[in-house]
Amino acid sequence: MTFAIFKKASFAAITATAVLAAAPSFAWCPGNYAGANVNGYGNEVGVGNAGCGNHTQVDVYGNGNSTIAVTDGHGNYTAVGTAGYGNGTYTSTNGSGNTVGAATIGVGNTTNINTNGNGNFVAAVTTGTGNYTSSNVNGSGNVVAIVNGN
């Protein structure tokens, strides 16, 4: 099991995170992609390659960019940002499972990376400032990180 969670002093994110589980490569499957931006200043982008599942992004009063990328993945990917200033990035390669990110009033950057992992990764930040990174490489199990405040 190889799990790593790195947090800089003050932690935050326009979207806090969770990463997913692994699987071999799958045949190309379009899936569903939804992007919604309400009174936000930024871009909502969803990209899926050979992914089967649902990809949803919601940004309310957010200033920044949200990006979701899935390669050969089966599962659900959700990013939610409320009153966030910064960037949220989700990347899954050969993953099968669920990825969930949620941040409220976060200022900073959130990065989520999962490569050939089995398990679920969940990170949540509320009213934080700083940067957050979680990564899983060829691991199996669960990693949970929750931060409230600074």
From TrEMBL:
Keyword entries, A-Z: Signal
Its signal peptide is 1-27
Does Signal count among this protein's keywords? Answer: yes
Protein's name in the database: Curlin associated repeat-containing protein
